[in-house]
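Reminder: ligand-aware prediction takes two inputs, not one.
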Amino acid sequence: MLLAHFLRDRCKLTGTHIGCETSLCGACTVLLDGQAVKSCTVLALQADGAEVTTIEGLATNGQLHPVQEGFWECHGLQCGYCTPGMILAGVQLLQRNPNPTREQIAHGLEGNLCRCTGYSHIIDAVEFAAKRMAQSNANASAKPSSPKPAEGKKKAKAK
Ligand code: FES
Ligand code: FES
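Here is what comes back for the chain with FE2/S2 (inorganic) cluster:
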C-alpha cells in the first residue's frame, strides 16, 4: 500500500491529494521526518515509525503556519488541488533557505505542478511566509528592553 493511499483511505486525511501517481505532480507531497516526499512513491511500510506531517497537521493550536498564511494572503490558489503539496514543499524550501529569491522559490517548487495559478501568486505566498518567519524570529530573539530610568523631577523655580 502506498503512503498516499494509507493517509487518505485508512487515516481519512484527505488533504493529501493524488494527481498523477507517478511522482510528477507533487499533489501528494507530505513531510516524512521533516523531508518533503511524494507520498505516491513511498510505501506505507517505509513510513513505519517515522513522523508524517500532512497539511492537516501543519497549523499549531489553530494558528496557521506562515506558509499557509501566505497562500491565504497572496491568493496562492485557485482550485486548491495542488495547494497542500505546494504548501508542504514550501515549508521544506524555507527550512533549507529562509531567505530565498523568487528564482530560488520557483526552482524549489519545480517538482509541484499547478494548472491554475500561473505560479506567480504561489511565489508571492512563499515570499510572504519568508518575511513573516524572519519577522517572528527577530521578535523572538529581540532582547527585552531595559526599563527607562525614572525621569528626574524638575526643580521648582523660585519665584
Ligand atoms: Fe504523487 Fe503526483 S500524485 S506526485
Ligand atoms: Fe488548481 Fe493549483 S490551484 S492546480
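The beta strands are 29-32, 35-38, 52-53. Residues 120-141 form the longest helix (22 residues). We will return to this case in the review session.
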